[in-house]
Amino acid sequence: YVLKDSPASLSYLVELVQRIEKNMRTHVLVVDDARAQRAILKERLERYCLQVHTADCGEEGLRLLEANPQIQLLILDHGLPDISGFEALKRARRFRNFDELAIVGISATPSAELTAKFLKCGASDFVAKSCTPEELILRISQNLESLERIRELKELANKDPMTGLFNRRYLHDEIDKQHQEMAQQGLSMRYAMIDIDKFKQINDQFGHETGDKLIIAIADRIRDFLPKGAKAVRIGGDEFCVAFPDIDELTCRAFLSELRSSMPITLPGHDEQVFNSTISVGLSSGADATLSDALRTADRCLYEAKESGRNRIIA
Ligand code: GH3
User: Would you tell me the crossing angle of helices 112-120 and 85-95 to the nearest 10 degrees?
Assistant: First the structure.
């Protein structure tokens, strides 16, 4: 590329480099039994720096898909030698949702019926093998962009915007699902309810904005000390919950003790204020069958921690 000495051409170049870098991280799987067609698709996609995997039958395609969670887009032929494209499509959708994988159906004999059936079985799009290279890459880019938008929306829906921790919705959807799956395997989940002590006083004394900064600082501490596999949630206000999947009580207690003894917090700012903030914690035992039961147990322990003088962990 010849760069003219202008900000517009420089920003174009930056955008181009970013797109190429993104494509280099994007994995695509082509499943087609026709060797020549596979080679054409691979060559066209690699021209845009996409990482291309190939398979010549449905079973091999599904195996590659399961083994490579980084694959974001599947180009799937209709006529395969072992299982039909529709069968492969339905099976792929059982373990990869619309927010994880875009699937584009292809056929050498396209028809309205075929398109409809592909979409009904779970495809995101359909193209004829005879399409131009430009149409192919446009459809692929659009499907990858939609996937990214879906992911961004999901992330927004599950995160607390102030602290970046998971929110209550995530706790009651995803962590609840995890709780049920773990219970089926005979494994237990523990939950810690964490609440800042006398937080109202901090708001009253130093203002709401400083209160917000303290909530953010405590969320950052929780994140810093969090054991591997544990998930931190801001329930609301000054209350947090940490979910520990199959983590022993000793590790949970060690994390909570470290967090509690890391108080008070020094807030970054012009006059580096130190707050004598403490936290109270309630920890569930891991014996509760459902998420609601476990949260009730942790809440009861938290209440006890507050009633018995605050700044302590009750399990
Ligand atoms: P306790 O030790 O008994 O828990 O006393 P507390 O003062 O912390 O009582 P409580 O937990 O009920 O008070 C929470 C306060 O947090 C009340 C509410 O005005 C304030 N609050 C809720 N959400 C926010 C927020 O996003 N930012 C700020 N700064 N304050 C909030």
Answer: 30
